[in-house]
Write a structure and sequence with these properties.
Chain B: This is ABC transporter permease. The complex is a heterodimer of chains A (370) and B (593). Chain A is α/β, with parallel strands linked by helices. Chain A contains 14 helices and ten strands. Chain A is globular and about 65 Å long. Chain A starts with a helix and ends with a helix. Chain B is mostly helical and 593 residues long. The chains are: A alpha/beta (370), B mainly alpha (593). At the A-B interface, helix 3, helix 4 and helix 14 of A face helix 7, helix 8, helix 19 and helix 27 of B.
């Protein structure tokens, strides 16, 4: 009798809980992302499976990640947050956290454990660079070059300093129109040891030194501000080599079959992930938490790699990375985190650039305008 | 071009000077009739007996009100959605309340510090900073201030962020000693009773209200909830710093966290404050004379715990946490940006900077805005000029060709006008780039060597070409509408009187088309000066405008104050040029059709 009551109660509780939870959650969710192939990979890997499980949920996508910080600040000032989940790069997540615009999270509380029981905090490890940031992928900024424009009898470029070697590798380059990454590469090729780069870059002399190094190729550089620029310039044959995000280059090489090669040397790792805007109402917050827990579990992050060549942020996802969903090629070797690609890497120095961004950017822009 | 007979036909329908003469004659006749009820020399009266002047005024006023009522929806719409946001945005260019809102006590005590000397601010400033920063970091506002000050002095962003994380450590030094001696210091209830009053003792409600105001300044929201704590006056005299710190804690716990003050253990800052109060000169006498709640415990703490307190000061704590707190520049910046309003953003916008020693020029390598303003003006003028050169003949053709041909031409003018801006800009990229259509043709024709292809994009030339194309319709349309109204007979008349084609164009036709040129120039120039996306895409490094920097500061660096200052200057420049234009050409000589 007693046992039966208990079973009945448990059964009732099990039956009631999902309903009760469902009632507390909003049925609509606005997710902000970057658009293009990246957003597509998120839709395929996270959103569609989630909507299959929860048919009542309606997900609206907003392609505003590029201006997410400014727009969130404006929304916050207006007191009307219309976004539920925002995809941003780690440096933006840090700024949003600093400004109090993103919600602080407890990874172990919010995020799923790895299948082997490792806590989320350990599974993400060092990638939790801010108290508000939920990492999704590791991407890198690296170089692609035209294989058909490599002069005859010369090895293809495999060293970051080949960017500066205009004699061996003639042709234009494209670099991002901001100091971040370019200054580091310049100092590295000016003979500064890798672990001293930020000590040098802190000083005005070091900044001038980096700009002087960039001066050597300034006339041959096309400056880009949108991630699609370099792939387009490569495809048009406008440039010999240029920096961009590794996923864009993968798409040029494998999906569009252009004569372009990857140069992984001194690639700069950066992170992209979610933040939850601060001040969401209860029901929307509950829905977002539920979605984030699902979308950042080990399997979902590994699934995303089938659509785009960015490395999953969880350690436990790496062994699960399989083949490209359409091309059927193994994705492992195309990941920036693959051992043969990551022999010489940089990691975006968030702390340094949070401090020096305004100052060095002013110098960099003044240098550009001269 | 045309025959004399056809000219005669046309003038038959047109109004002639004789018509005007007849009309004015009939008008004069009407005036001569005596008006109703007019007396000799008295005021002219209307039909109802009121003076005509007043009656007319009343009628006019009614008319005006009705007109105002008609445009009211538009006027309100424009005010609310256009003028007000712009005014708000421009206001940010001088607003700087964040420093004094976040660090009110620090900025007040820092006033008397001499930034030109070699000494760091006195201990009192560091003490004030500790409590200001503690509250700010609880409210997560210290990083926002760090971001703000980092625009002026590199490194302050991480200074505030990292210091905010370790503020607890200083309070814990004293908290540990106190709690080791007597566990009662861990009790939230004991603290609450000691610091507060239940009503029979005199209280200091103004202390807690001050904290409420402070929280409002800090978070931007007025919390009206009950705090459930009234500071006692007696303890406030004995332990002034502690009373302040506890009131700050109580207000925050109750209003922001929604906790019950009596159940919460006070912040580490309260322990730090207690330590300061116990070690201050005259503390022993004050506590000996105090007999309220916690008198015994305070006496015990004074005798036993205080000698064991670590020998440290606020200043030592800050300098240990980060040596940058010992930087005179950092303190100079905080002092220079203490006032609620600052000229700093405007100075930055013209390559100057506000330092502790006054205004000085930015380092040479960082001067960019004056150059960009000049470039923006120069390129806008060039674009405007090339629009006139290209647009004038097109508009002339449009207004003089037969209807069927001119309609076709009009469609050709309007077609790109209806095409997306981005598409047109990208099309220019395809045409002008080094592997692009134009270069390919030139190489194929043998005019240009394959390894010396022309650089026509990602520089000023590319921007001028693309923007001239994009803005051309804004020049052609007003020109066309003005030229359409110039009677062809005038030129024919000039020719028939012996003028050469050039003279008849230059002396007769051109002066009549000037209002169209004026309107087109104003349109094109003002549009060009604020252009942003085309220079960004095809401007490279030498073809970018000031608006690209404004966009950068709005969306990337989040330095909205500087963006607002740059925008205000740009607006002022446009208004001044408009005024100059009005003085030289006269705004009445502008016709939009």
């Amino acid at each position: 009798m007693k046992l039966k009551t208990l079973m009945l109660m448990t059964g009732a509780a099990v039956a009631i809980t999902p309903m009760a939870v469902a009632q507390d959650m909003a049925d609509s969710m606005t997710i902000v992302s970057w658009g293009g192939a990246y957003q597509n990979s998120q839709q395929k890997a996270y959103a569609e499976p989630y909507m299959e499980m929860h048919p009542e949920v309606d997900i609206v996508w907003d392609e505003s990640s590029n201006e997410a910080v400014a727009k969130l600040r404006a929304m916050n000032e207006a007191g009307n947050i219309t976004w539920d989940l925002v995809d941003v790069v780690a440096s933006d997540a840090i700024r949003l956290c600093d400004e109090g615009l993103a919600m602080e999270i407890d990874p172990d509380d919010l995020l799923a454990e790895a299948p082997d029981g490792t806590s989320a905090e350990d599974d993400f490890g060092d990638l939790l660079v801010s108290d508000c940031f939920i990492p999704q992928i590791v991407y890198s900024t690296t170089f692609g070059y035209r294989t058909d424009m490599v002069p005859e009898g010369v090895e293809p470029p495999d060293d970051i300093c080949d960017v500066w070697d205009l004699e061996t590798y003639p042709g234009q380059r494209s670099l991002e129109k901001r100091p971040i990454n370019n200054m580091e590469w310049a100092l590295l090729c000016d003979g500064v040891a890798k672990d001293e780069i930020y000590d040098v870059l802190e000083t005005p002399e070091g900044q001038d030194r980096a700009l002087a190094k960039l001066d050597e190729i300034k006339d041959e550089v096309v400056w880009w501000s949108a991630g699609a620029d370099t792939p387009q310039l490569l495809a048009d044959g406008e440039i010999f080599m240029g920096s961009t995000y590794n996923g864009r280059l993968f798409s040029v090489i494998e999906e569009q079959d252009q004569p372009v090669g990857m140069m992984w040397d001194a690639q700069v790792f950066d992170l992209d992930g979610w933040i939850i805007p601060a001040g969401l109402p209860e029901d929307r917050l509950a829905r977002v938490k539920d979605f984030v827990n699902f979308a950042t579990d080990t399997q979902r992050l590994a699934d995303q790699a089938a659509y785009i060549s960015y490395g999953p942020a969880r350690k436990s996802s790496a062994p699960l990375v399989g083949e490209h969903a359409e091309l059927g090629i193994p994705m492992g070797p195309h990941m920036p985190t693959a051992p043969e690609n990551s022999e010489n890497i940089f990691v975006y120095n968030y702390e340094f650039w949070a401090d020096y961004r305004d100052d060095i950017d002013a110098k960099f822009q003044a240098w550009l305008a001269q | 071009m045309s025959k004399l007979s056809s000219t005669g036909e046309q003038t038959a329908d047109a109004p002639t000077p004789e018509d005007a003469f007849h009309e004015s004659a009939t008008l004069e006749g009407r005036d001569k009739e005596p008006p109703h009820g007019s007396g000799e020399g008295g005021p002219v009266l209307a039909a109802d007996g009121t003076p005509l002047k007043r009656s007319l005024q009343r009628a006019l006023r009614r008319e005006k009100l009705r007109a105002l009522g008609l445009i009211a929806p538009l006027l309100i719409f424009v005010l609310v959605t256009f003028i007000a946001p712009i005014a708000d945005m421009l206001f940010r260019s001088v607003e700087n309340q964040i420093v004094s809102d976040t660090l009110p006590e620090t900025t007040a005590t820092l006033q008397s510090w001499d930034s030109a000397g070699d000494d760091l601010p006195p201990e009192a400033v560091f003490e004030a900073l500790y409590y200001d920063l503690f509250l700010a970091s609880e409210a997560k506002r210290h990083t926002r201030l760090g971001t703000r000050l980092n625009y002026e002095e590199t490194g302050l962003s991480s200074l505030f962020r990292s210091t905010g994380r370790s503020l607890d450590d200083y309070g814990e030094l004293f908290q540990d000693v106190l709690e080791d001696h007597d566990e009662i210091w861990e009790s939230a209830g004991f603290w609450y009773e000691m610091m507060g009053t239940t009503g029979d003792e005199p209280g200091q409600p103004e202390l807690i209200e001050a904290q409420r105001d402070r929280l409002e300044a800090l978070t931007g929201e007025r919390q009206t909830g009950e705090i459930g704590f009234v500071p006692a006056a007696a303890i406030g005299e004995v332990l002034p710093r502690t009373a302040d710190a506890y009131a700050a804690f109580a207000a925050y716990a109750a209003l922001e966290d929604g906790d019950t003050v009596a159940e919460e253990e006070p912040w580490e800052a309260v322990f730090a404050a207690l330590a300061s109060d116990l070690r201050r000169d005259g503390a022993a006498e004050a506590i000996a004379g105090y007999d309220g709640d916690g008198a015994e415990e305070l006496q015990a703490a004074l005798e036993q715990a205080v000698p064991e307190f670590p020998e440290t000061t606020y200043r030592e704590f800050f300098l240990e946490e980060d040596e940058d707190w010992g930087s005179l520049d950092a303190w100079g910046t905080i002092q220079a940006y203490s006032p609620s309003f600052t000229p700093g953003y405007f100075l930055n916008a013209v390559d100057l900077e506000l330092t502790a020693d006054g205004v000085s020029a930015k380092p040479e390598g960082q001067q960019i805005y004056v150059l960009l303003f000049q470039r923006t003006l120069f390129m806008s003028l060039v674009i405007m000029g090339s629009c006139v050169l290209l647009g004038y003949p097109v508009a002339y053709l449009l207004s003089n060709l037969p209807m069927r041909v001119s309609n076709l031409l009009m469609i050709l003018v309007l077609l790109p006008f209806w095409t997306s801006l981005l598409v047109r800009t990208s099309a220019w990229k395809v045409l002008l780039q080094q592997q692009g259509v134009i270069n390919d043709i030139l190489v194929w024709l043998g005019l240009v060597a394959d390894d010396a292809r022309l650089v026509m994009i990602n520089n000023q030339f590319g921007t001028i070409v693309a923007m001239t194309h994009i803005l051309l319709p804004f020049m052609i349309l007003p020109l066309y509408s003005v030229m359409k109204t110039i009677p062809p007979s005038y030129v024919r008349a000039a020719k028939s009187l012996g003028a050469t084609p050039w003279t008849s164009f230059w002396r007769v036709y051109f002066p009549q088309s000037i209002p169209g040129i004026g309107a087109g120039c104003i349109l094109v120039f003002i549009l060009a000066i604020g252009y942003y996306i085309t220079p960004e895409l095809v401007g490279g490094t030498t073809g970018t405008f000031i608006s690209n920097r404004i966009a950068y500061h709005i969306s990337s660096s989040l330095n909205w104050g500087l963006a607002a200052a740059l925008g205000t200057i740009l607006l002022a420049v446009v208004l001044i040029l408009y005024w100059v234009y009005d003085k030289i050409v006269g705004i009445d000589n502008v016709s939009l059709g």
